[in-house]
Amino acid sequence: MAKGDVVEQNVQGGARVSAPSGVDLGGLILDSAPQKPGETVLRWSSRAHSIEEIDRELSRMWAIPKLVARVDGEESRHIAARTSVMNLVVVARRPEIGERCSATIQELTGRHPSRTLVVSTGDPDGPAWINAHVQAHCILPREDAPETCAEMIYLTAGGDAGRHLGAIVEPLLIHDLPVTMWWPGEPPFRLPLTAALLRITDRLVVDGASWGGDGLARLREMAEAMDRLRLTVFDFALVRQSRWREAIASIFDTPECVPYIRAVRRISVTYATHDPTGAPGSTNVVKPVYHAAWLASRLGLSIVKPLTPLSTPVSGRHRASSRPGPEPMHRGLTATLREGRSDVAVYIRPVMSGMPAGTTLRVELLAERRGSELRADVTAEAGTVRVRVWEDGVELLERVFRAARRTDVDLLAEAIEAGGPDPVAIDAIRVASELIAS
Amino acid sequence: MTVTKEPTRKGPPAPEAPVGAPARPGKEQPRTMRDLRLAHEGKRRAVTRPVENPLREGLRLERMPEPFAFVLFGGTGDLAHRKVIPALYQLWRTNLLPHEYALVAVGRRPYTDDTFRSDIRASLDKYSRTLPVDEEAWAGFAERLTYHQGDFSDPASFDRLVQRLQRVEREQGTRGNALFYLATHATDFPEIISQLGRVGLDHEVHGGGWRRVIIEKPFGRDLESAIRLNREVLKVFREKQVYRIDHYLGKETVRNLLVFRFGNGIWEPLWNRRYVDHVQITVAESIGVESRGAFYEETGASRDFLQNHLMQLLALVAMEPPASFDADALRDEKVKVIRAIAPPTRHDVTRDIVRGQYGGGWVEAHEVPGYREEPEVDPQSETETFIATRFQIDDWRWAGVPFYLRTGKRLPKRASEIAIQFNEVPHRLFREATGDPQPNLLAMRIQPDEGILLRFGAKVPGLGIDVRSVNMDFTYGSSFSVDSPDAYETLILDALLGDASLFTRADEVEEAWGIVTPIIESWADMPPPDFPSYEAGSWGPEAADHLLARDGRRWRRI
């Protein structure tokens, strides 16, 4: 029997049905256990060591004329549909990141793109090599519907090949379908390797909140790359804030608050830190910066003075001048924006908290108009966002929105399913980058 | 359907935009050249435009519905419990309704607020699209849910309703906005509408809130009654306040039909008599009349499905591209198509319309009784449970292209589909091919397996040339697994936002009746039909097959 041929046989109990003869290439896997709608089943698994072999495996996977499972001696369903929506490329610089991403992708039952490439790099020394694991994951959308399958390719490149991932990924993409690149960790935006990969990408998915330090330098690099390569960026850190944005926007749905929308004078964002000094650079502040940037971009505020550390730490009452004690918490960052002829102050402040570092804890707005002031206070918990608004000290409204914090699975699903560029996100990232300005 | 930005109120004058800042929605703009010049010279302030909420851009809703009271007539009925209230709950649960909202259910039965709430809770536990019911969301929803007992023919109950709504407005801050939903028997519509007018609940006070009314089908039972109903409704409400709901238009795939036609460049050049041989529209149901025998006796397939669902689907398939997605632009085009169908004469009815009634048979592995054996059905009933028609649209685009429509109960399965059958190739190049290549076909499945299929010929691998038809099949399930909203959620939200695109206008209703009424009247003049004429579980009477066979065509096997 030829290398990689598929043998169909009926095995009870969900065991592997097919096996290539004496090779490690694997192949068709049929599960005799009845499949439930919504559950993902591995239908194909084989290995390859070159682009050509991967291509061959992919063709073989779909060329089986009648992919029929036999359950209790009777032919049951066959794999009828391959999704044709998009390519997803996951750049996992280390295999363990790749595994973590795979687990997230596996949870996206039924939302799989047509082809997923999980690319990681191996030992950079020695000759070029590729090791790929080709799989087909299938799902039964409904009891009476045919299975729908998506391809997964786990690919590790070593030696010189690891330095030219663009040349490996490009030939493996399904042509004419959009390419979404999920880059967990820290994408080195200025490296040629990254540029080569981003050039074949339509949408880059990152999580700015996971970047090291304060994350701001990388945010600026990403904004540059976004403009240079006309990339659509989907940053989990920004998208996670949609429940905040809905809550903040709802304030100005209220007729009494509408007149204040063009009169915002102060934006304060408080974030969690684990660093007792709260010194700038110690905690990732991408999320709080995005809050300010989103408000600035939507309200059309111009930047007068970009973010700088507030000059002096809190002193005075809390600290006797000569007595030793813990360092006071740093006051954070400030910037000045402009609305027409009025300045808008921005404060981004750290607070010691048990919440993950960098998490936004509170967004406060102050608006002043014709001698009246409007104060809004927005806070969030795991499943809710609370909005309180006062006009001249009198409570105008208090609302609680039920909106759960979204997981990486939800966010990746949205990234995969989103359509074209999101102008609101593009504006927010651009303004964030201008706010950071070195 | 689309969230249009409707100016709502004036705001403060906006200052000049900073250089390089993104364009500001709702920013003041000079309107005339003189304004522009004077504004440049600093002599005149630019004209103020109403302020939008720029923070809403890019969020799920570009506009949140304004505070409102939802007044549900027929609050204890089946439609309210199965569809309307679950849709409102879903909108509430997903934060798509404002906090200043109240639901006042109106019905004859003696409920208290509490007993009504527990009844609704039981219905949500059964019919909510997402189960289990979210307790916190339910708490907020139930808090805003009240019951108003009253007979629709009793003027005093409407006087009390006014007081109740005033109280709701004070307590819930609904700002005078009210959406009246008529989920009652159609015979109650005129009375309710007239009473609403009598007590002034139709009045839209300047700056004091809007008033809208949603009317469920059937909109009349023939042309005359539809005109009468429209007249009654329009005596009280203006057309812009009236939302005639046909839930079919809120279905995801039906809405996708518009995107498919007008969001893709490749179809429009082919979408005409030059390339299309004929069109088939099927809305098949496997169920019988269930517990609605009495209702169906008076309705039949022509009134229940043909006049509304089928005619709407036909209009969406055949209409010209509207200039905008504005509600009236869209509905103008739909009306034009329906007007282009000549009302059938008696001769046309005999030749181009087939009616049928099911007898006993087997459907989905169950033995089912014939229509005449159903509860509340006359054993000599002449009501049609199946109708197939051949319509001709007399316009430039479709002249000579027949549109075959069919709908029926107790057909082999529940399936709705629009199929565009393209012409055969003009010259058979592969005559020696053993297979018989079928002409290209584009099928849009509405339910149950929402998707789009394109059939084309392909060479069978091997020596020689053998051509076989293959399908390129797009299914929603395999490309998008996002949970689609129920049609009622879509439509209620649209009505709250003042978007009438997916609702039927008075003239549309009347034009559709203008086609269906002559059919019904011709049948009334004919001898009694030979019913039952098809076995339950079959695709209708043989005459329906002959309707197409006569033209050298056949119904698509669905």
Describe the structure using short key phrases.
heterodimer, A: 438 residues, alpha/beta, eleven-stranded mixed β-sheet, eight-stranded mixed β-sheet, 33% strand, elongated, disordered N terminus, B: 558 residues, Dihydrodipicolinate Reductase, domain 2, six-stranded parallel β-sheet
Overview of this protein structure:
The complex is a heterodimer of chains A (438) and B (558). By secondary structure, chain A is of the alpha/beta class. Chain A has a domain at 242-316 and 325-407 and 421-436: 2-Layer Sandwich (Dihydrodipicolinate Reductase, domain 2). Helix content of chain A is 24%, strand content 33%. In chain A, the strands form 2 sheets. In chain A, strands 1, 2, 3, 4, 5, 6, 7, 8, 9, 10 and 11 form an 11-stranded mixed sheet that branches. In chain A, strand 10 (203-206), helix 5 and strand 11 form a beta-alpha-beta unit. The model of chain A is unreliable at 1-25 and 315-321 (pLDDT under 50). Chain B is α/β, with parallel strands linked by helices and 558 residues long. Chain B has 15 helices and 17 strands. Chain B has helices spanning 33-41, 78-93, 113-127, 135-143, 155-172, 189-198, 223-236, 252-262, 293-318, 327-339, 346-352, 476-479, 487-497, 506-525, 542-549, and strands spanning 68-73, 101-107, 145-149, 178-182, 211-216, 242-245, 276-284, 353-356, 358-363, 366-368, 386-392, 402-408, 415-422, 441-447, 451-459, 467-475, 534-536. In chain B, the strands form 3 sheets. Chain B has an 8-stranded mixed sheet with strand order 8-11-12-7-13-14-15-16, sandwiched between helices. In chain B, strand 1, helix 2 (78-93) and strand 2 (101-107) form a beta-alpha-beta unit. In chain B, helix 7 (223-236) runs antiparallel to helix 14, helix 9 (293-318) packs across helix 10 (327-339) and helix 10 packs parallel to helix 14 (506-525). The longest helix of chain B is centred in the middle third of the chain and has 26 residues, at 293-318. Chain B is globular, with a radius of gyration of 26 Å. Classes of the chains: A alpha/beta (438), B alpha/beta (558). Chains A and B meet through helix 7, helix 8, strand 19 and helix 10 of A and helix 12 of B.
